[in-house]
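ok trying this again, last paste got cut off
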Amino acid sequence: RCVCYGLGRFGRCPAARYQLAFLLLLLDELRVPPARCALFDPAFSEREAAALRALGLRLLPENEEGKHGVEGAATLFYMVHCGKALYNNLLWSNWSPAALSKLVIIGNSFRGIEERLLSRILERDYSYIAKVLRGVEEVALPSHPRYLDTFNDTSVHWFPLDKLQELSPEVWEFMEEPMYQDCEDLEIIRKGE
């Protein structure tokens, strides 16, 4: 399965078109049928939504705010240039070694997030990203001069079960839903906004 968040206005934006093309090639390479790929971006126009349906892709009916569970199935999350809260919500909604070990994220580098944020901000606002840093493997996509703006700071992330099981039991006990009241740079469109 595949879930794609935040693709953007590919009818107007060349970078979003390249990201869509890469997604389609990736689905083909991984032999994921288009019908097993669900997308959501509140910015999609009616024409863009129709084009995605014509490609055989599914549109999610509502804004999940990134809170999509893997439900026991291996799932690729394609989230290029999404906000930190979206990644944090995704981790929270799959917060167990069994669930996290079934997901792969193609999106902003978690190491880059760690390097750019003060540790107290990372732990306060994006605690699930902060807690999983020692349990994630990450490989940056190779850079290409033509696509620097399209895939810059993009990595493939996966969560090996043995690494997750090495984390302290306390890491898994705290499962409070993220709220983001004090977050100054919230990059997420919430339900109803």
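PB: full thing came through this time. The mean pLDDT is 92.
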